[in-house]
Amino acid sequence: MQRLMPILVGLLIVLAALSSCVFVVRERDYALVFSLGEVRKVISEPGLYFKAPPPFQNVVTLDKRILTIETNEAERIQTSEKKNLLIDSYVKWRIADPRQYYVSTGGNERVAQERLQALIRDALNASVNVRTVRDVVSTERDKIMAEILTNVAKRAEPLGVQIVDVRLRRIEFAPEISESVYRRMEAERTRVANELRSIGAAEGEKIRAEADRQREVIVAQAYAKAQAIMGEGDAAAAAIYSQAYGKNPQFYTYYKSLEAYRASFSKPGDVLVVDPSSSFFQFMKDPAGQALAPVTVPPAR
User: CA-to-CA distance for 241 and 233, rounded, in angstroms?
Assistant: First the structure.
């Protein structure tokens, strides 16, 4: 047993030495192999690798995935109209050059994010300061994001970093100007509403006037047509009466005299002062109506 102890200790030492010479690179990492403080190799492919034992060589891993920088607080940016906006953004980035990245930041992700945030803030100011609120909020929002991406990507190259995307998530007015902006928006909407109401009222009056004109035309046409029909009916009735009475002129005279009598003595108190010898009483003197000269039948209308 005493003879085996030195052998076991030797094996453990050998295994420890061998384990310090082997390292694994994962799919999501870069591996930097240092030799006496100097980068000797950059490994980007996953797998099992060997190196010299410490202190001759050591390995530092860096994340090769796409990372995100989100602002903790919205940036206060001033527009060309001297109005403050609160802009919340985020950036997607990744390590493009592991060696340069380690030289620039010491491999510290926090240091890299702080430096990138400063670049983003400068680019955001440069793009927003020359635009109006309307441009920033709606019309040129995509253009601003493209400008920031181009600007930051170029300035981030010395850091060994690639900027993948830049997005403006939220844009709001600063609290001190929000109320005035809302009041101005309300006044503008009220003006537009009043304008639309006046246009609607004018259109309504125009439609009503046109409807009244059409009604007058239709009524006039209908009245003219009715009068024409009535005239035709009266003419036809007169022709029928003339034809009927023309067959017996004596009966026509008698019938008209009866109508005249009925109209003249329609009420008990009616008084008629005429010459008794007038033709009005011809049928009262002689039922045959022969006391007077023959009556001429009026022509048919």
Answer: 12
DSSP state of 175: H
Long-range contacts of range 156-159, CB-CB < 8 Å, 24 or more positions apart? 156/93, 156/116, 156/119, 158/100, 158/104, 159/100, 159/101, 159/104, 159/105, 159/112, 159/115, 159/116
The tokens describing 92, both together, are 């997607």
Phi/psi zone of residue 107: left (φ > 0), alpha (ψ -120 to 50 degrees), beta? left
- Tokens 């400008």: give the residue: 147
- The DSSP-derived string for 218-235 is HHHHHHHHHHHHHHHHHH
According to DSSP, residue 135 is labeled I
- pTM comes to 0.55
CA distance 170 to 142: 13
H-type alpha helices, the chain = 4-20, 98-105, 109-128, 133-134, 141-156, 175-246, 249-264, 282-285
The model's pLDDT over 148-199, given as tens digits with 9 standing for 90+, comes to 999 999 999 999 999 999 998 888 887 766 677 677 788 899 999 999 999 9
